Amino acid sequence: RRAPLGNDGLAHLCQFQKLRVLNLPQAQFTDDALAELSRLPELILLRFSSPHVTDAGMKHLAQLKQLRFLHLISVPITDVGLGRLESLKNLESLYLDDIPVTDTGLEKFLKAVPVHLHIDQQHHDLDPHGHSHTHDGSNR
After folding, report:
1. pLDDT (tens digit, 9 = 90+) per residue, 102-122?
2. pTM for the complete prediction?
3. Long-range own/partner contacts, residues 63-69 (CB < 8 A, 24 or more apart)
């Protein structure tokens, strides 16, 4: 945490090919660095924030066919970038926090990949699983 991990740092981490979980909540890498993630064949959970990742970078994430859990935080992607992730058929859960996608983009994505969906830490109405729980430890 609080480490502004850049392109070189992500490239270094991707040397560890057995990584299954990667949590980088305050990173500063770019689209180019995301290409390095393809070196992680066992990565199933990816959580990151970076203001320098764009729609173009999502093509690199789309190559992570084994990915099951994805959490994007303050990544400035649009419906175009989200659409690039439609090939992630093994994806089970998608969290989008402070991401400027529209309901139209979300609907299109969910038709292709019916994942458990959270937007800004809340279940979204479009979540095909219809889960009804809160994140404060209580169930309602």
Report:
1. 999 999 999 999 999 999 977
2. 0.88
3. 63/37, 63/38, 64/37, 64/38, 64/40, 64/88, 65/89, 65/90, 66/41, 66/42, 66/90, 67/43, 67/91, 68/44, 68/92, 68/93, 69/44, 69/45, 69/93
